[in-house]
Amino acid sequence: MFRDVLLSGCLLLVTSLLMPVGAAAAAKTAEQLLAEGDAAHRLGHHKRAVKAYEGALKELERPYGALMGLARAHVALDRFDEARVFVDRALEVAAEGDERAAALNYRGMTFARESQWLSAGRRHRKSHGQRYELLLQAIESYREALGAIEHPPAAIWANLADAQSQALQREAARASAEKFLELEPSARASVAGLLAHLDCLDQMATAIDFKGALERWGKDEMEPPRKVHYPSPEPVSRSSSGIGYFELIIDREGSPHCARLTANHGLEPAFVAGALRTLSTWRFEPARLRGEPVSVIYAMTITVR
To answer: In which region does residue 245 sit, left (phi positive, over 0), alpha (psi from -120 to 50) or beta (all else)?
Structure first.
């Protein structure tokens, strides 16, 4: 009997000693899984990252890092709705301040990224109105992120400015860009594309919409621009095919500016990038209104068969 009591006491002692070790091992496993997920995500193995983050999620009492990792991995896989589910769960456990601001900022990025993805026309066709709604949701999330922390990082201002410019909110976008540069004066190069886009929006505000002008004044008064020099963009592969709808400004001298893709039906992203570069080299006889050269916003279609 004494022996049984002694053995029971030893077992209780061993169990009590092992419990903290087991808890530490679980915590270590979670850290390892998070590190594995981060490494897989950086290498572009996003499905592997999802599995690692899901494993970490089961081990952590406060799974903010795993939830944000899952959100990033799902965005990389173009699963935007799933990503926002994980961001919303991360917001439920986020600490006030930096964590909450980071989660809200990333929530905005999921909306902005989805808008860009839809604009590229990779899988689904959605109207401009639906993409605009996504941008408005991105802007709302970025503003919430700015309000969640006393001294928000400059990157949130840059994200807000970009979403506002894509939503054609010129004045608001320029104000946000100026706030970013106020915080990061040496980072002007990082927002060069954004500032160029805002300059394009300014030019669009003063140019005539050719299609609308043609409907209003007719062919007798509104003459279209004529192509003078127009090299064809090169397909990136023999199997390339599709239709791209582009818009550009043609100024009074016949020079094109601010070419952009407005809709894409099957063209490869590399071809679109090449087409935009090629369009910038085209030259035109300018459009004329009642005989006088005018700057116009002009729509063009490029078809690859």
So the answer is: beta
Tell me whether residue 7 is in a domain: no
Which tokens is 49 given? 């990252």
| DSSP type of residue 34 | H
Are both 181 and 260 inside the same structural domain? no
Verify that 224 and 246 share a domain, yes or no. yes
Give the pLDDT confidence of 98-145 residue by residue, as tens digits.
999 999 999 999 999 999 888 765 444 456 678 889 999 999 999 999
The residues near 32 (Cβ < 8 Å, ≥ 6 apart) are none
In the structure encoding, which two tokens stand for residue 282, read together? 């085209």
Identify the burial level of 216 via C-beta atoms within 10 angstroms of its C-beta, where 0-12 means exposed, 13-18 middle and 19 or more buried: exposed
Nearest to 34 by CA among 16, 15, 59: 59
Residues in the chain: 305
Q: What is the pLDDT of residues 18-74, one digit of tens each?
A: 434 444 444 458 889 999 999 999 999 999 999 999 999 988 888 999 999 999 999
In three-state secondary structure terms, 246 is strand
* Token pair listed for 256: 């094109």
Kindly report the pTM of this predicted structure. Answer: 0.69
Pick from 229, 162, 223, 144: nearest CA to 198? 162
